[in-house]
């Protein structure tokens, strides 16, 4: 039993979807999983287990930011034997060609966080996605007629930043597709523990065009992405 999740051994599947928002974890479980059971409510960070097309799948909230992802992903991997984790979330698009509700499949994640500097010192470790999951997500998205783009993203330590316009333009010039707050830590931990990890993101707003989705659009596009994640997890 871990400190922050608190589930008993065997209560969590080795295939896990990780939304940041615990209420989205609840929504995913109630909408998509059969026989969903809540295994944790510690600190309000919901976790559920159920089945999807006959396979055991868990949904665990991660919270916001790399430190929170570090706690929940570490415990899933170290204490509960997670073998395949897919983060499902939203992002801000950094390129004009990314349309609202598009899916971004994150191939790698840069960051301005000091977490990996503490780990690796002068080495700039470049965490990346599992290729099998990435390829499966891209092919499945194409088969479903979804607009999906594969490429690197930026995991930011700050949501509000004074230098955001300059920073996002520079990142876009270097091929970064979108910004979010958790993936770099998930990919780093997956590399350490030799498990498969992938991040799927729906574009909820675009920093370049100033477009933003409505709450209804966000929910619909999020559901489509969750189904994509469930098909490959």
CATH class wording: Alpha Beta
Q: Which structural category do the helix and sheet elements fall into?
A: alpha/beta
Shape: globular
Strand order of the largest sheet: 5-8-7-6-9
Which whole number gives the mean pLDDT? 95
What does this structure look like?
By secondary structure, the chain is of the alpha/beta class. The protein has a single domain, classed as Rossmann fold, CATH 3.40.50. Helices cover 36% and strands 27% of the residues. The chain has helices at 22-32, 66-79, 115-120, 131-143, 164-173, 183-193, 215-232; strands at 15-18, 34-40, 47-52, 55-60, 84-93, 103-111, 148-155, 178-180, 196-206. The protein has a five-stranded mixed β-barrel, surrounded by four helices. Helix 2 packs parallel to helix 6 (183-193) and helix 4 (131-143) crosses helix 7 (215-232). The longest helix has 18 residues, at 215-232.
What is the gist of this entry?
The protein is an alpha/beta fold.
Key words describing this protein structure:
alpha/beta, 9 strands, EC 2.4.2.1, 7 helices, 233 residues, transferase, DeoD-type, uridine phosphorylase activity, single chain, purine-nucleoside phosphorylase activity, five-stranded mixed β-barrel, Rossmann fold
Write the layout of secondary structure elements.
Elements: E1 15-18, H1 22-32, E2 34-40, E3 47-52, E4 55-60, H2 66-79, E5 84-93, E6 103-111, H3 115-120, H4 131-143, E7 148-155, H5 164-173, E8 178-180, H6 183-193, E9 196-206, H7 215-232
Parallel strand pairs: 1-4, 1-5, 5-9, 6-7, 7-8
Antiparallel strand pairs: 2-3, 3-4, 5-8, 6-9
Helix pairs in contact: 2-6, 4-7
């Amino acid at each position: 039993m871990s400190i922050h999740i608190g589930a008993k051994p065997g209560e969590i599947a080795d295939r896990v979807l990780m939304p940041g928002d615990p209420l989205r974890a609840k929504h995913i479980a109630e909408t998509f999983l059969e026989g969903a059971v809540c295994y944790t409510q510690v600190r309000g960070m919901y976790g559920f287990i159920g089945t999807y097309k006959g396979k055991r799948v868990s949904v665990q909230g991660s919270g916001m930011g790399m430190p929170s992802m570090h706690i929940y992903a570490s415990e899933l991997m170290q204490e509960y034997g997670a073998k395949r984790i897919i983060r499902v979330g939203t992002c801000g698009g950094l390129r004009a060609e990314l349309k609202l509700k598009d899916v971004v499949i994150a191939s790698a994640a840069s960051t301005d966080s000091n977490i990996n500097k503490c780990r690796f010192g002068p080495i700039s470790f470049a965490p990346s996605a599992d290729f099998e999951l990435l390829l499966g997500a891209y092919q499945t998205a194409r088969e479903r007629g979804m607009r999906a783009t594969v490429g690197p993203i930026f995991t930011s330590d700050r949501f509000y930043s004074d230098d955001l316009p300059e920073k996002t333009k520079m990142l876009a010039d270097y091929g970064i597709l979108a910004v979010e707050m958790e993936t770099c830590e998930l990919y780093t931990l997956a590399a350490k523990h030799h498990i498969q990890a992938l991040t799927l993101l729906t574009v909820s707003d675009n920093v370049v065009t100033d477009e933003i989705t409505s709450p209804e659009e966000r929910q619909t596009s999020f559901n489509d992405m969750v189904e994509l994640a469930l098909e490959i997890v």
